[in-house]
Design a protein that fits this description.
12 strands; binds NADP nicotinamide-adenine-dinucleotide phosphate; 284 residues; six-stranded mixed sheet
Amino acid sequence: MRVCYLLGYPVGHSMSAVMHNAAFEELGLDYRYDLRGVSPERLGSFMTGEMRDPTVRGANVTIPHKLAVMEYLDEVDSEALAVGAVNTIMNDDGRLKGYNTDGLGAIRALEEAYGELEGVKAVIVGAGGAARAIGYHLSIRASEITILNRTQDRAKELAAHLSSMPECKASVEPSSLHRSALEEALKEAEILINTTPLGMTPDVDETPVDGSLIRPGTLVFDTIYNPLRTRLLREAEEAEARTLSGLRMLVYQGAAAFRLWTGLEPPVKLMIDVVTDLLGGEQG
Ligand SMILES: NC(=O)c1ccc[n+]([C@@H]2O[C@H](COP(=O)([O-])OP(=O)(O)OC[C@H]3O[C@@H](n4cnc5c(N)ncnc54)[C@H](OP(=O)(O)O)[C@@H]3O)[C@@H](O)[C@H]2O)c1
């Protein structure tokens, strides 16, 4: 039996365990996915001890460990280094390597919904971990990216970081979350991405963007998956925009981790169905 962990603190409710365990079972693999709450004080001893046990195949990493875990790894792949965070770990005979699959998961979901992203004009709301991962992959493809964040210094820092990457093709500008800044940014945008928790259960009446600012035809991608239909997506529909929930990003980042751990192609359709069932809704 090989074990994969979700490493976070706390790790009370997670779709990943149900999704991965269903996929392991479907392929008849002797694998199990367990939630593993490890406090920041215990992270070091966990990473140098139990995480290197040969029965442990790997882990997903979530809040608050995505940055802190990096110092305990033997290697970090170039994409995770560029993003500055690790969300997946592989244990190869006690040697730990870190990856980041969030950004590619999001890009795959976006490409399915939008098509080719080359030359696109995008607005990202938020400048935290999810924005960094998505921003990195988008900056390789898009022509313009505006990053709007509550704390403007973080938007500036992320815009400067993305612009400094040799592979960046986009002009990346920081801005504030004020209505006038949003209005200006959304005039030209073809894609709007929310990476803040605004609108997530239980605060489902919140939204990061006033629906009246959304133009028809824009693709609005809310990385939140609980609920599947956030207020932002409902208002986007009313504005005749296209919508994408965070469900497929969740499944595709998980599928990429599954490939790393097992070397096998995961049953992606089953994983989408399992998470959709758990969230009690139609596919986003
Ligand atoms: N679908 C998926 O697979 C997936 C994966 C990862 C994340 N996500 C989603 O992304 C969200 C963010 O995750 P993260 O790891 O990027 O978190 P994070 O690093 O903590 O970043 C949170 C971001 O949201 C902003 N924010 C938080 N509360 C806000 C508020 N009340 N008003 C305005 N802005 C606010 C923060 O702004 P400041 O800089 O001003 O604090 C920051 O930019 C999660 O809640 C989750 O819904 C989805």
